[in-house]
């Protein structure tokens, strides 16, 4: 009866948030280094545990409606079936009160000590349970990034030997990647059972590898195929024959591969792509890579990813050091924004933009490989919570463009239920329709 009344009062159920999603984030990376002996906790390094109320107030003051944020996994997930939700309870209640939409980041480059690392085959099933417990506890939350930057996490942990398992092998890389993506897929399925209209924004690094010479063409081609593996598996897209052989040669089984093909959840997804000045690489004859700087830029690389997956796009991360002139970050913001407008005007459905993160970060100058306490001036605010020039520029940008973009024909309607609307007639109707679609999709797949 409650459902029927909600559907009747909500009319055709097509009301949705048509705003462009301007966002920032709270950096919550938690990898381990020194063979697991040292935990790098960016929330701790940046003072968020003590100043979270102030941080959320700054988000509100900036006019930013969406926040990439998640509970610290190593402090929240204490063991199988054991949780400490105290910090999450306080912070998510405050976000809801402020009507800030969280894009919940559940796993950001690390796992609790009791799990070990991403080589653990039990991680996907265990993480699925963790995601489900979170979703049941906070049913008003709709937007999720279950596992952040799966490709980068596997690369840094198991190919470069920097974090977590600190391996430098193709087999270690494939093992980490398949566990990370399986965890993400299973978490999406579990969350959809609880919140049928959940939307998943995959924050994944958008990469490109440039050959320095004719002899480097072959290794560059391989790397440009491997950069798609995490999203190919996540979206149930068949990989090409060479990548299939690569996966099989390095420990993936046919059954594991078909698990990904059989879980097509992309209709619930927005492709979040991250772009930094470090995302493009020069490849030498022997396959060694080094930073290339910005060559193609965000717009060209985003077109490549969109052509492959045909999904709505959100620019989910970018930043740059403020620099000695004090204008470098501001110039980068406007360059990235110009790229966003360019691809959007070309027909790519871009629905959001993110400066990451709200405050400066610590030790990203060494990619969190060392715990030196070096402050990186990348934030909208410094660690004393004083606004930086890029913060003022971003606030101005939001004010200028927020009311313009939704009126343009290329703006995709994103069916977001704002925190204060949770439980109203429209939200109930959207929930029911989403559940009906899930049932129909399952029936079509013979589940």
Automatic annotation (TrEMBL):
Single GO MF descriptor: hydrolase activity, hydrolyzing O-glycosyl compounds
Any one of the GO BP annotations: carbohydrate metabolic process
Pfam families: Glyco_hydro_1
Identification of the protein by name: Beta-glucosidase/6-phospho-beta-glucosidase/beta-galactosidase
Organism per entry: Sphingomonas aerophila
Lineage: Bacteria, Pseudomonadati, Pseudomonadota, Alphaproteobacteria, Sphingomonadales
